[in-house]
Amino acid sequence: MPSIGDLDQDFEAISLITSWLADSYREGQYVNAVLFLYSITDDTFAYQSRRALGILKRLCGESCLRDVVLIPPKWDQSADEKQDVASDRAPWEVDIDRNDMLMAGVRIKRCPSSKESALAIISSCIETSRVVRFQIQREVVDQGCELATTTVGNQLRVDLVRRQDELRQERLALIAKGPPEGTATMGAEREETKAIDRRLEENTRLTRRIKKAVSSLHTQERGLEPRVLGSSQPRPPVSRLPPMLGNFQSLTLAKDTPSREQSLHRARDPLSEAVATGSLSFLQMILERDFATIAIGSWEWLTELEQLGYTKSEVAELLLEQRNDQLSIVFAPWILEDRSPRIKFHVTGCVHDGGCHSPAIPLEVNPCPADAARNLRRETASLCGLGGVIPSSQEKDWWKTLAKFPDSSTAVIHYQSLATDVSVLTRYLATAMRRVCTALNIVQDAKACCNRFTVLVQKPRSEVITMRTINFSDAVWFSHVLAEINRGLYAASLTRCQSTARAILDDLGMPVTNSGGPSVFDVLHDCALAVQFLSLGLVSYLQAHIGKLESFFLEAKLANIKLLGSTSYGSSKGSISAALRRFTCLDDMTSFPVLIFTRTSTTLADSSPQLDLLAKPEDLLDTWGPGEMIREPEDGETRFRALTVRGGIIHPSSGTTFHWRRLESHASAIDEESFAMN
C-alpha cells in the first residue's frame, strides 16, 4: 500500500482515504477523531511529516483540527519523565509550532511504547468525541467536487509540479556535469560517469512516477473514465476500519459522474484547448492574456505557481511537459568513440558456425532481465536512439524536431528539416550510421550475436512475415559510402550509396525512382530510410522483436513507429511502418505480438488474421534462443529435422510447413520426436 509522504504515490493514498470518508459519511457514520502517528528519529520534525501534516489539515479543515491528535509512537520514556511538558517542551514540538502549517487546536499526546498508554489515548478520544464533518467530506459529498478540485487536491498538484521542476533542474545539472574531462570511456575510469548515469536513471524513474501522478489529477479533472459513488458501485463495509495506509486509514475512491453541463463547460475550456495544441507560444499567449479568467476552478492551482514565482512561460512549459508524458528523458552520452564490428566474427558454438546453440545472452523479453542483457539494450539504445534520432544532451534540439509523438504509443521519425541543407543531412546520416556500427561492435563484445542480426518484415502482397537477415558487412559498407558522400556528392558515390540503401530495404519493396534517374534528394531519402530501418531494427532485435518497443529514454512503450526518411507525411517517395502483429502457432511461443516492418502502403489492418513466419532455422534460433537444432543422417548427409526453443519444439507438420508446440521438457521432446517425426 502507498503511504502519505511518497510524493508520487500521494494521490493514490489520498484517493483511498477520501473514498472511505465519503462512503462512511453517506452511510451516516462519522469519524470522531484522527490519530496521526509518526516516528521520531531525531529532534526535528521531518519534511515528510510536515507534508503529511499539511495534507491532514486540508483533509480535515480548520474547524475539525481540535479532533486531531498527534502521537509520536517511539517517544523515549526516560526523556518523557525528565521533561515538563508545560515548561520545557521537546524540540520537535516547538518545531511543529514554528512551521508554516500551524494547526491551532491540534492535541499532542506522548505515547510510550506500551499497550496501556495507547489504550489510554484512545479512551480519552472517545470520552471527548463529537460528530465531525471533515472538509473533504463536505467538498466531495455535499458540494459534488472531484478530488482534483478539492483543497487537498489543489495542494497536491502544486507539490507534484514543484517536485517535477526540481527533478528537471537536477537532471540538467547532472547532464551539464557529464563525464569527467579526459576520462576514458571504458574501464575503471568510467566509475564517475557511471555514477552520474545511475543517478540520471533514478531521476528518470522518479520523474515518470511524478508525471503519472500529475496525469491522474488531470484525467480526473477532465472528467474522464468516471466511476460512480452510488448504490450500483460495490462498497466495502463501513462498520470496520479499512487497512492501515501509512499514517492514515484509507479505502478506494470513486467519483461522481460529471453532469452534461459540466462536461460541456470542460469542452469549452480555453486552457485545455490551448494545451492540446502543443504550441508553447500559443499557450504562453493565452496565459499572458487571460490568466485571471483562466486560473479558476480546476485551474485555480496555477495561481499558487504564480505566487511561487513561476513566470507564464515556465507555467506553459510545465503544462506541456505534463501533457506530453510520452516524450523522452535527455541523457548524457557515455560511449564517445567510434568502433567497427568484425565481419567474420562468430560466437563459439553458434548456429551459424556449425554449432547447435544460439549466442550466450538470451534476448527474449523478461520482466526482470539479467543485468547483462539490460545494460546491452541500454548501451545500444544510447547509440541507435529511435530511428537514428537520439535525445542526448548534445542532440536534444534535433530530437524535438525529428521525433514526433502523435499519441503515447506512436512515434514518427523524419529528417525533413535536415533535408533543407544537403551538407547537414549527409553529415547526420554518416554520424548515425557510425553509431550503428559502434552498437554492432558492442553487441558482438557481449556475445549476443555473431556477424548478423534479424528483422521481421512483410513483403508487399505477401501473407507471411519474413525473418530477414542483416549482415554486418552491409552495415559497414553502408557506413563507408555515407562517409564518402559526406565528403562530396560525386556521381559514383551517390550511385554506390543508393544501391546499398536499396539492398538493405530490398524486401520492403520501396517504390522505384522515376525514369529520369534519381536526384540527390531521392538518393538521400533512400539512405535516410535505410539508416532509420537499421537503427530501429537492431533495437528491436535486442528485445527479440517481442512486444512494444521500449527504451530507457522513452516515457512510454511504442506500438507503432513511422519512418519517413527525409520527407514528411504524404510524400510519394515511400515510407516504412513498424507495428505489432501476431503469429499463428508461434504466438503461443512469443506470448506477445511482434514488431514487423512494412512499406507504409502495405501495412495490415488491425483486423488482419494472424500470420505465418518464413525463416531459416538458424536465424529463428539466433533470435529466440537459446535452443537446439536436431539433425539426423539421411542419404549420407545430415539434415535438419526439428528445433527446440522456448520450452517447445518446432517440427514438420505438412510439406514444407513446420509447427511449434509446447513440451514439458526439452529432453523428453527430443526422445518423443525421434519416434514420432513426420
What class do helices, strands and sheet pairing give? alpha/beta
- Beta strand %: 5-15%
Helicity, as a percent range: 40-55%
Number of helices: 22
Strand order of the largest sheet: 6-7-10-11-12-8-9-13
Low-confidence stretches: 77-89, 94-103, 181-186, 221-267, 360-369, 602-607, 665-678
Sheet with the most strands, sense and barrel status: 8 strands, mixed
Mean residue pLDDT: 72
Shape: globular
Q: Please compute the radius of gyration using only Cα atoms.
A: 31 Å
Number of strands: 17
**Alpha carbon gap, first and last residue:** 55 Å
Region (Disordered): 217-241
Describe the protein's architecture and organization:
The protein is α/β, with parallel strands linked by helices and 678 residues long. Among the domains are: 55 residues, no CATH class; 273 residues, no CATH class; 51 residues. It has an 8-stranded mixed β-sheet with strand order 6-7-10-11-12-8-9-13. Strands 14-15-16-17 form a 4-stranded antiparallel β-sheet. A 3-stranded parallel β-sheet has the order 1-2-3, with no helix packed on it. A hairpin with a 5-residue loop joins strand 8 and strand 9. The chain is globular, with a radius of gyration of 31 Å. The C terminus is likely disordered.
